[in-house]
């Protein structure tokens, strides 16, 4: 294991805290889904059905986002353990400290992130 710099140690603390938050969010979502499945379906009007469907859509989006972010956080923690944290996974250049401070799970430098987003926008 490599010796972590103070900024890497701080990033690791932030990432571990975020990892715990995301896991709690996902556990809560799973518990809510199980609880909702156990509740008997009550007769409802169209407004209640629409409200329930809208809430389900928001919950699904929140869960999907939490899963994606958790994967990014887990990957960043792995990079810390491997000693490659702060190195762009695309070009190999150092990721700016300001970017890592703003987005501790960042795997790409600003330039490569922008290029990745442009490619994704053109693909859709």
Automatic annotation (TrEMBL):
<dbReference type="Pfam" id="PF01258">
    <property type="entry name" value="zf-dskA_traR"/>
</dbReference>
<feature type="domain" description="Zinc finger DksA/TraR C4-type">
    <location>
        <begin position="83"/>
        <end position="118"/>
    </location>
</feature>
<feature type="zinc finger region" description="dksA C4-type">
    <location>
        <begin position="88"/>
        <end position="112"/>
    </location>
</feature>
<dbReference type="InterPro" id="IPR037187">
    <property type="entry name" value="DnaK_N"/>
</dbReference>
<keyword id="KW-0862">Zinc</keyword>
<keyword id="KW-0479">Metal-binding</keyword>
<dbReference type="InterPro" id="IPR000962">
    <property type="entry name" value="Znf_DskA_TraR"/>
</dbReference>
<keyword id="KW-0863">Zinc-finger</keyword>
<protein>
    <submittedName>
        <fullName>TraR/DksA family transcriptional regulator</fullName>
    </submittedName>
</protein>
């Amino acid at each position: 294991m490599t010796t972590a710099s103070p900024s890497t140690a701080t990033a690791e603390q932030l990432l571990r805290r975020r990892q715990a938050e995301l896991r709690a969010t996902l556990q809560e979502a799973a518990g809510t889904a199980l609880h909702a499945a156990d509740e008997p379906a009550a007769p409802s009007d169209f407004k209640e059905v629409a409200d329930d469907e809208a809430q389900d859509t928001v919950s699904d989006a929140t869960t999907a986002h939490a899963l994606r972010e958790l994967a990014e956080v887990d990957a960043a923690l792995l990079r810390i353990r491997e000693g490659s944290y702060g190195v762009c996974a695309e070009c190999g250049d150092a990721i700016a400290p300001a970017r890592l401070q703003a987005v501790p799970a960042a795997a790409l430098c600003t330039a490569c992130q922008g290029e990745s987003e442009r490619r994704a926008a053109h693909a859709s």
